[in-house]
Design brief:
324 residues, alpha/beta, 10 strands, binds flavin mononucleotide
Length: 324
């Protein structure tokens, strides 16, 4: 299937694996790219630029297909060494970067100077237009359903994607709530050029996370995510657990007086404990509502092949019949 996104990124299928903290390691990125999608290594999971360089090299040993690196620009006081990470990306021969969080304007000259294709992930049309105006090559439009940070506007993809299609000139992929061929075909119908998946890729054989995480996603329904940190305007969609319920209780009790320190125990330093050790109640971790659509743990190739073959059947079968 050829779309503006497959053409831009030089990939076979219009499917991207979004950056995921402590999930987007070389193994998963390589598996997605080898299956014809775009795999993305999560930059900041690597604690230093030198470690990112090593992770990129590890991934390169597993695939010669295009791979990307996610750079998340966090609203923190002590900024990570972003110039160092960009240098590791450039030196590692990476040609595609997924940016997220704050607007990437400050980093665009450095990325563009090295011919890097930038896909910016954002949750509003307003932010997408801004990203387009500073030279981003593509957008990943993350609806309210998404795992991770859905922003503060709460616009689901049924509205957000057609709105993006009406406004944007550059290609974009639909992100948030995407799981299968139906998601892909719907996204294409709403004007997107492909889809980005997070949560769905965690429940795959190659995702290098503890089996408890995959089982938790399988066991979850679409009712089992919660929004935390809304009072701090840093909303995150997470899978509910004892720690998340504690956060929500603290948020209710503290009201407008809440500060990050009140919940730091439940949200800081959690990912290695959950993703690597399988300690499912260690704290809050991102998960999308799409968990309700995930019922198996296929290999990445089985997943992508299934999506593409069912999408073709959907388009040439049911949809063609409806058009007759
Ligand atoms: C466990 C987890 C960790 C994530 N970490 C990041 C991250 O570090 N940076 C980022 O830009 N997005 C992150 N995301 C968001 C994903 O890249 C993607 O946008 C999102 O998962 C799409 O929604 P979905 O889960 O419904 O597919 C994370 C998502 C999950 C589920």
């Amino acid at each position: 299937m050829k779309t503006r996104i497959t053409e831009l990124l030089g990939i076979e299928h219009p499917i991207i694996q979004g950056g995921m903290h402590y999930v987007g390691f070389a193994e998963l990125a390589a598996a997605v790219s080898n299956a014809g999608g775009l795999g993305i290594i999560t930059g900041l999971t690597q604690k230093t630029p030198a470690l990112l360089a090593r992770e990129i090299a590890r991934c390169r040993e597993m695939t010669d297909k295009p791979i990307g690196v996610n750079l998340t620009f966090l609203p923190v006081i002590e900024s990570p060494d972003y110039p160092g990470y960009v240098k590791a990306i450039v030196d590692g021969g990476i040609r595609i970067v997924e940016t997220a969080g704050n607007n990437p304007a400050k980093w665009m000259p450095m990325l563009k100077e090295h011919g890097i294709t930038v896909i910016h992930k954002c949750t509003t049309v307003r932010h997408a237009l801004k990203a387009e105006s500073v030279g981003c090559d593509a957008l990943s439009i993350d609806g309210f359903e998404c795992g991770g940070h859905p922003g503060e506007d709460d616009i689901p993809n049924m509205i957000l994607l057609p709105r993006a299609a009406d406004e944007l000139k550059v290609p974009f992929v639909a992100s948030g709530g995407m799981a299968d061929a139906r998601s892909l075909v719907a996204a294409l119908a709403m004007g997107a050029d492909g889809m980005n998946m997070g949560t769905r890729f965690i429940a795959t054989q190659e995702a290098p996370v503890h089996g408890n995480v995959k089982q938790a996603i399988l066991a979850a329904s679409e009712l089992d995510t919660r929004l935390i940190m809304r009072p701090l305007r840093n909303t995150e969609r997470v899978l509910t657990n004892a720690a998340v319920e504690r956060v929500l209780e603290i948020e209710r009790a503290q009201g407008a007086h809440i500060s990050f320190e009140d919940i730091v125990k439940e949200v800081a330093g959690v990912y290695p404990k959950v993703m690597l050790d399988g300690d499912m109640d260690a704290g809050a971790w991102s998960c999308g509502m799409v968990a309700g659509l995930i019922h198996d743990i296929p290999t990445v190739k089985e997943l992508i092949d299934r999506i593409m073959s069912e999408a073709r059947t959907l388009i040439s079968g049911r949809l063609r019949e409806l058009a007759a």
